[in-house]
Amino acid sequence: MNFDGGGTQNLAFDSTVGIQAEVVHNPTVNLVHPDATPQEKYRVGVRFLEQGVPSRARDLMSDAIAHGYDTPEVRFHWALAMLSGRSYHDLSAEETGRLRHASGLVRGYPAGEWTEALVVAFELLTTRGSDKDDTDRVRERLHSLPVPRRDALLHHFDLVLTGALKDSLWADSRRSAEASRFAGERRERVWAYFDPEPIGARATAPRPSTAAEGRAALPLRAGLSLLAFAVLWLLALTAAPATALLELLLALGAGWAAAKFGRSWWYEGYRLKSEKENEPYVPSSPELVFREDGFTDSVRHAFDDYFGARVPQGVAPQQWLDQTFRMRHILASETAALYRESRVGVERIIWLINYLAEDTRARYVRGELFDQPARDRTPAGTKALCVGALAVLAVTALALVRTAAHGGFGATFFALLAVGGAFWAGRSAVFAWLKVTGEARRLAEETDRYQRELAIRQVAFQNYKGFLDDQRPSEQEMETWLACDKTLFVDEVLRHYQLTWRDLITHTLLVTPARPYMRGRVKGGPWRYSRYSFRLFLVTQDGIREVSTDLDFADGKRSGEQRSNYRFDALSSVQVTERDRAGYDLELILTNGPARNIRVKDADTHQLAPEEDAREMTEINLNAAGFIHTFRLLEGIAAEGKGWIDRNNPNDLPPFPAD
Predict the structure, then answer these.
(1) pTM for the whole structure
(2) Tell me, what DSSP letter sits at residue 7?
(3) pLDDT digits over 417-445, tens only?
(4) What does the DSSP 8-state code read for residue 292?
(5) Rounded to whole angstroms, how far apart are CA atoms 491 and 159?
(6) What is d(CA 117, CA 152) in angstroms, rounded to the nearest whole number?
(7) Cα–chain-centroid distance for residue 183?
(8) How far apart are CA 483 and CA 181, in angstroms?
(9) What topology is assigned to 31-180 in CATH?
């Protein structure tokens, strides 16, 4: 949303209003229609790969290849998807065979930039680093590739590159991560990814008309009034025709003037009384505000926060809050009533609260905030004319009685009865008529105000929605930033322990949510978090080094680093606990210490769309966390100790493991 000075400001990420828990975005770019062509499936698969969902990418690309769409470009991305986040031990025999088959197809492709990229990909897989000349040659060919393809190979082949070869490429990976880590204004935009989809504009609808009773009673009351007045006039006409005619004309003129000038005066009081009756209760001071339900309290606190942040220049913050207390309370009650429904959090209407706070400040600056609008005040002249007309009408009625009295005692008696009846029925008819016309006017005014407010709020909503869409990072940006954080964390740990990749047998990085966090995802994609916990396992000949740290994803800062070292035989068992309503827990049991419980994934079944498969989404999230590779590695070490490492040392394996 636009703010003063033409700049932009975050409405939610730094706010203390409410708690943002989770949000699911609904893009259409990754939807695959049942009748999609192989080319369309491949393009969606590439997007999934770039967004950190290699399992979906593998399925889509394999399907495209099976239906005849087989080119060097397709095979290149397919190879990336096959090995992204996986080591050779994670591949099935079938997948290993398919990789072997694909490596044999390279010779049959025509020369071109994608064929060259595919050749380099398989050379990276077959180079073990024992031959320095061979390693240098592969590195040179890798550097000759366009930067996006080179970086993609280094990122997705992370767990299959041998130590010697990876040593020669690691400096490039680190430099690339440092350059891309905060690209695209990461610090200023990350908040928008976790900001929930704002709910649309709403305004208080006009109250239904209450004029039905008055409309039903008006004809009878008006008829009785006219009948009584007609009797009075006839009595006067019989006694003195000329005088009665003059008094009749005067009475009709006075009645018309009283109705004309008195209606707006009466409506002024009627509207104010009606608004007062329908206005929510406002305590006399903030200390007397009683606690309401959670949503209403959250809305009220949000109004306090945003009004406190939108203070007019030259006004003290506390003075502004005191002056606008009544207004804030009414606005908060109305807003809570408009949006009170299940699963609507206050964070989804922050845009509206911010708009109302800014609008209030703007009206104060224009001098319109505390002044009653001119439409609410009846001019003194109009009031005087109404009072004068009523006085003339009363005098004229008495004059008609006096004129009728010339007809004798009987005429006088009936004249008095007629004037009394005319007053009683006329007063009742006038108030019924005023209620009917007043309700019609009120309904028209409230409808007009409702339409104007709704139109203005819709513009404010669209402005904020557009701003949020512009600020929200793409899935590819989120994945790239996270990959850079992982690379730099691993590099820092290697430097701390003074290790090179040659010194490692293997490694694994487990990425889990760190509480408290906000989380968000796109449909079909993994959860992404505002705070992560990185847990790196470095496997060397001497044992396992474990380093963990928490990452604030918004600014990339890490904190709470912990380190531990243990022998292979110290890891006695690894267990996984799956809870449908709680998520996945990984438990490491050491022989010389307490069990270590790691929350890998929180429950999310309540957040799945109808078309999403719960098991598939679980696999996607576990893969994104690096859980599957980590579990297999730790499970193997716990079962066999150093014997598993000796048998599965990647530096001793052939280029492609045997089937």
Answers:
(1) 0.78
(2) -
(3) 877 777 777 778 788 888 888 888 888 98
(4) -
(5) 15
(6) 11
(7) 24
(8) 8
(9) 1.25.40
